[in-house]
Amino acid sequence: MYLIEAGVTALVDTAVAIPDVRADLREGLGEHGVAFADVDAVVLTHWHPDHAGLAGEIQAAGGAEVFVHEADAPLVDGRDVPLPADPTAQRETFERWGMPAAARDRLRAFFETEATGLGGPDASVTTVTDGATVSLGAATLEAVHLPGHTAGLCAFAFDPRTLADHDAAEMDGREDGSARRNEKRDDGPEEAFTGDALLPRYTPNVGGADVRLSDPLAAYADSLARIVGRDWDAAHPGHRERIDEPSRRAAATLEHHRQRTRRVIDVLTAGAATAWEVSTALFGDLDGIHTLHGPGEAFAHLDHLASAGVAERDGTAYRLVDPDPDVGALFPTTPLDGRVCETEDGGR
User: Do 242 and 325 belong to one domain?
Assistant: First the structure.
C-alpha cells in the first residue's frame, strides 16, 4: 500500500479487512496525520483482498473514489464473487485440473477457515481501462493494463517529480551498461506502482490467482514484455521492496516461465498428465493456498502449450503432440533476452 499526498490524499491499494491489519493501517496512516475519512481516492492495482479488502470501508468513512480496471471491478463492487466463495466455480476448476478429492477437501477447508472475511464491504467503483489517467492533484497516474495474475491487473505509471518527499530512483547507469530511461529520451523520469504484476523476490502466480482468464500465461508473458518496453526507472510492487531495474526483473521473470515450460514438457514426455499431476511433479506436496496456486500454475502452462498446438487435451489430461517444440517461439521477445537469467533478483 502506498500513500500519495499531492493536494489530494490517495492510497494505491489497501489491505485485508481483518482487525489486526485494519488497526495497523489506521496506525500507519495516523503517523502521517491521515484517517480513513481523509482519503479522497483509492487506486486499486487488482481485486485480491490483500490489495482491495479495505477499499469499501475507507470509502464509507469519507466518500473516497475507488478506481479499478473494468475487468476486476465486479469483484470489488460485489457483482461477482471470488473462487473461495463460489462452490460452482470451485467444482468446475478442480475437475478441469484433475484435482483428487482429498486435495479438494483440504482446499475447501482452507477457504472456509483462512480465506473468509478478508474482504470488507463492497465499494462503488470508477472503472479505468488501459491508458486512462487518474488525476490526484499535482500527480497523474496512467493505467497500464498488465493482465495475467488477474484479468484486470493494472500498473499505474507516474512522474516521480510530482510526488513530494518521494525517494526517486537514482538516474545512473544500469547493470547491463545501458543508460536509464530519462537519459535516453526527453520525456523525463517515470516510475510505476505495479501491484503483483512484478515482484522482487518471487514470481506472481499465474493460473490459480484468477481462474477467469483464458490462456493466462500468454496474457502474463505479453504483460512482462510490455514492462520491459516501458523501461520504467523503478517499480513499486505490491509486496516487498522497490525494484530499481524493473525491465531487467520482468525479462528475468519471462525467462523463468520459458524454463518452467521446458520442465512441463519434460513431465509430459513421460506420458499424458493432468494439471494436478504436473503440479505434483514440479512442486511436490502442497498445502494452504499453494494447493490452489500449484495446479493453477501448471494448468496455465499446459493451457498455453495446448493453445500453441504443442500439447493436446484429452479429458482432464494433456498429452504431448510436438515432443521437441521451439519454446522460445511460444513467448514474446524482448531486447533483454539472453542478458538475464531466471534466478536473477531471487526469482523462483
Answer: no
